[in-house]
## 1
Amino acid sequence: MRARIRHQFFEITDMWKLLYQLASPRTFYHFSAKFHKGLTVAAAIILPVALLWGLFIAPPDYQQGDAYRIMFVHVPSAFLSMALYGWMSFLAVLLQVWRIKIAGLLLIEAAKIGAGMTLLALITGSIWGRPMWGSWWVWDARLTSELILLFLYIAIISSYKLFEHQEAGMRMAAILTLVGFVDLPIIHYSVYWWNTLHQGASLSVFSTPKIAMPMLFPLLLSILGFLLYCFCLIFQNARTALLLKEKRQSWVKALMIGVHRE
Amino acid sequence: MSNFLQSLAMGGYGLYVWPAYGFVCVYLVMNLLGMKMRKIRAEKLLKKWFKR
């Protein structure tokens, strides 16, 4: 028992050690290069397969016919719009509490991709809503709270750009991210708290899915593909931004012109 | 040919399904191109900076 507790303690301290090591720009740059290639290859294979599966192989829905195929792009983008915001909130805590600058950089890059995902969720949802509800837009609780999420993303990116000093901008963006976190449970529970046109969740961690298996597999694959794609973009963009930010450091110079003066 | 056109029509919902996928594909490709361009621009800028 004691050995197990000791083992767990060392695992936790190792995790913190890794986190602190990753906080160093140089370590982050080299460490992220290792899994960035893997992310890119996986996203390049999974995403097209999932989209083609959803478009041509999955059977039509008995009520919505082929219109439901929009789900294979709408659900992943809506899921990512919220998941990325949740991750940004964690990064905001890392930045505010431990002053980890890489967290600020990742937060801004994630906000840019998250804003795009939210916009995609709104556009594809609107296109899906037209044949199903007979309207492009309704001021439904789910749609409105998702629109607020888009405004939050825009506010976070704008607040970062407003500041001349990059680090002050990051801190402001982190505060706004934490304030806006309250919108996530509102989006999630909006379909239960209010009487909405938008349907309830078909997928849940705690219950069996309300969706048939031949539709569930491509949907899960599509979510995974979108997830990999987003992280591939975020990490690559953060690495590029990091190089520019750290241009005065010798390791950047070594990378760029092959001169190492440490 | 008619089978192909039928599958494109998506049971009358093609007008909605294809634009939705189109928007998504355009966004995904544009983002990838943006990422690549940003990387190339940054590398050029840094090389110029270090040559000074």
## 2
Amino acid sequence: MLQRLSAAAAVALFFAAVNVHAGYPKTQEFRLPTAEEKAMTGVDSAPGAHAAILDWVRIDDDTASYSSEYKRIKVFSEEGKKYGDIELTYMPGFPTYGRISHIDARTIRPDGTIVPFEGKIYEKVVVKVGRQALKAKTFSLPDVQPGSIIEYRFTRHWSDAMLFNTTWSVQHEIPLVRAKLALKPYDSRGEYASFFTFLGLPPGKKPVMVEKRFELDLENVAPYVEEAYAPPEQLLKAYVNFYYTSSRLGAAEFWKAEPKNISKRIEDFLGKAGDAKAAAQKLAGADPHATAKNIYAHVQTFRNYSFELEKTEQEMKKESIASARSVNDVLKKSAGTSEEINRAFVAIARAAGLKADAIRVAPRDTFFFSDKLADGEQMSGEIAVVSIGESLLFLDPGTPHAPFGTLAWEKTNVPGIRVSKGTDPVWVMTPQSAPETSVTKRAADLRIDGETLTGKVVVTYTGQNALSRRLRVLADDDAERTKDFEDEAKRWFADGATVKLASLTGAKTFDEPLVATYDVTLPNLVSAAGSRTVVPISVFATNGRNPFAPTTRTHPIYFPYPNTEEDEVRLTVPETLKVSAVPPPSNLNAGSLGYSSEATSDANSVTLKRKMFVNVMLIDAKNYNPLRNFYSAVLTADQKPLVLVNK
Amino acid sequence: MRRLAALALFALTAASAWAGSPPPWVKAAIPATMPEWTKKASAVVLLDETQLIVAGAGEIATRHRRVVRVQTNAGRDHAYASVYFDNDTKLKYLRGWSIDAKGNEYEVKERDAVETAAASEGELFSDARAKVLRIPGGDPGTTFAYEYERRERPYLLQSMWYFQEDIPVLQAKLQLQLPPNWTFDARWANFKPVESANAAWDLRDIPAIEYERGMPSYSTLAGRMGLVFIPAANDIGGSAQRSWNDLAGWYGKLAATRLAPTPEIQAKVKELKSIRALARFAQKDVRYVAIEIGIGGYQPHAAGDVFRNRYGDCKDKATLLKTMLQEIGIDSHYVLVNTTRGAVDPQLPMLASFNHVILAIAAPEKTHATIDHAKLGKLVLFDPTSTTTPFGYLPSYLQDSRGLLVTKEGGELIALAPHAPDANQLRRKATFALDEKGTLTGQVEEVRTGRIASEMRFELQGMNGTDRLRYIESIIGNHLPNSSPSAIAIENLDDAETDLVIKYAITAKNYAKSVADMLLVRPRVLGQKPEAIVDLSERKFGYVTEGPSLQTDDVEIAVARSFAVDELPPPVALSTPTVEYAAVSEFKDGVLRYKRKYALNTFFVPLEKLPEMNKVFTRILADERASAVFK
């Protein structure tokens, strides 16, 4: 959003706006249903959809600070009747001065008769903070039934002193049959330039300029589908985004220029780092690697504002929390935000004679970087890199308790801008972590006590698996942390399991594994097969579910980071029983996913070793079936039991 | 954990806040040391004080003060003051303070609060709003406090005092000021009544109602007191709603003016004719849309408006149906209910006990939802709002509860009995073949009735076609991880009057587990009956089940001829007042047959019966895991 500067232009636009408001254009006029529309009971692209948007006509005119919108929705089911409730939000206060007007609506019954909307339009406060409010005009259309078509249209106005970016979210929760979208950009006579970017449009489709406005016609856009293990929604949902910038740079030019801007900001911050020298002297190690680790350990002790609970302005004042202007500010307080701590590390490392750089990265937790989008906010994360000989040591000192050499997963395998002193910044890719560096190792030592297994479980987490849990319980106290870990462990076992956390180490450090030790009692596992006793010895997989049970898939499959699961279960067999059969070994290889299990027995015990790894980030939806089959096979292997018989 | 990045947004809410010292009543409430019995709590209410000042014209001023000590990080949730108001309620002031663990003091005022619509789900519009004040501080050791005054002219001269919470309360005080010659009734629920001293109550050391899995609702457990203010004879008519009869009479009068039929309603009634058709019309063709403004929170819209718009909330739907039934000469009566079981306490004839309206229809037929009323005869309880609950049934959340029957003479509290287990059935019939590789193939048919059908319909109707299939595939996958369901067909999904039928085919590879020279086959194949094994170590309350039901499985597995049966799971027969279960496996003519019957008989299992429930569920789980052995 940019504020306009030309009052003269605003006055001229006011008169243009008056003309526009005289009525809706023909494309937004209500119309009777066609025979085909009346007969519609669904759309092929979305079987079982509750409703479909037959027409969506939206005209945005940034020269007049005005937008008009028309929607025509066919209702197919009882559930689809909810689309008869309309809520239109706007911000009435300064500086937007938004308003909604000229609301028309009607219902066309299944038999084609018309029920005009003559009811009341309610105005409600959605949220209000001080003088700022988000309000909504809300109303409900009459006699909406399966088979009805509802139509409504409205205009939206805002202050002609404001210029907003516009987003057309073209993918909805119901299918879109036809859309005619148009935007007339504001002409600032050289002051601002307008651009657009888009994602997920049908092949060959994009806005085209027709008589000074962008136009886009669409047909048959499928609804958005939510799925587990999918990439971030922002990356999947189709949209068109129009934006203005104060420069005339397109996206390609923007990303050529932006690294220098980032580099300047970071180097300016690093420039005032006189205090780093003293710190560097104290932290010198036997070799560069040891020095880097000492410095890393030092800044890890800093208070990290980015990972604290939100604070009010009063609290920040009382605690003297303010943005640091330089590395010296961070070092004086031994506190800062994530990126400030990262830069403190870089500054001390440089002062210690290491070749250390900051890398500004585009985290992938909510979006994947797009160079089509001239938005510097995409580069919202920061890490450090230290060159030691020929190797690069990537570090994440701004993430509390991140193991030395481990980046928070959202900063792995993403583009970044490396900022080096005295040279031009360069684009780099951060490394992906290897599955063997993020391991969950579960070791159980159990004995059979009637129909129950009892014993001890030790779980050791490393890499991302340790870091994600440390961050999850970062703000927790002892009791909450204990409950969190016990709840996680209980989910592995059958209902009724008693799981008591006996000890937890490594939750507040970065350089040790995270180790949880439990005392467990596991009922509802052992079963009978006539006179035989059957034990599903892969006890950690007792509650295993196939996350890919559905037979169909729409989106790619997204694993945040490669990881490994290693289990070792030792079961002591009671003197009254002997081993009749152990589960056969299994070895499943699906390329980037793998699984193996093997059981061995001696005179009085059975030991199962199980390993599973994921070494991939994205799998195309077309490879869904092999993935599904792999997980099915894993569960089948996990269910193969140990059989005991009476001596 | 939220990152500081969110701080910028929140800073708006506190932008104008300024520091000020908490008033003496806040500091006075802080004890030198916290009592030992509160040490494990996430937060402790040090003081919760309410002053109710009733003016002669019926206006009530509520002054409320509260002081809370945070003891753990989870206790930070108490750093908010929420005050509800609407067009008829004036918020005179709202302010808050805190003293953090380091001794820093903070003050925030009403202008720092966030105002939001307080509409509940499904409400299109309500004038109810809330102001939410975030009080600074929050680390363990912080003490929060706030106070507000709210003035309202309630529709009824009643007030509910909720003094027991999910955290300990060291002191809860209520002081009542009435105009001269007014009196009051005080009624207690879930708490031993306490005599007032000059219309003031001072309760100390009230234990927390802590969360337990499957526990009854807080309404059933938490202490509360209802107050009815009785005006002097010459003040505002001198009437008060002191009894269920009074309350029903008030509601009957409030709704009576909304029952006039219009010609359009009369025409529709002629078309539909029968009770069931009219009931279905109100339930299905009138969309649930709630618009509640002022008295509209209690008073229905006119039947004619509801009919014309084809939308309304629960009381609107009930009103339209009542009006239509009148036209065919059928009497019906409003029944005020609460969708939380246990919220209606016989001791508390309070309007606040209710959040929903259904109808009792004078219909001669005997249904699961029929009650025999001493004066009115047979009445069928019917909920026009629940689109998945057919005529003759009551939604499960209303069963085993109470409702206020509104009659011409006034009304009374009635019991809403639970339906019998056989009203809610899941009958699964499956025919499979097991080949020599251990692959199971076959067909399954599941028939659901009553509550079980209603709940499944509710789930499925909210999904589009693709999601429905995926949902069913996921359920099957939970029991058969290596299966590929196909030909999934859902019958009668939108027709709540009929059984819900789901059919599918299954191919499950490696279903039979080959271990050494044995083949293990689980006869049960699908479905798990036990709801929960409840941890009894520190259990204080009973367990609320999903509700009575009768469920059967009839499974046939034709086993490849090359396999010979070695051992079968033993039969199981269990019978307790809560659960009855019988399962038997047999092998005959190459077919492994598994039959079982599971009946859950109650909505509630008392604490003393939980060990027995756990034992029975454990036995059933063992039967569900058991395998037949083939060689």
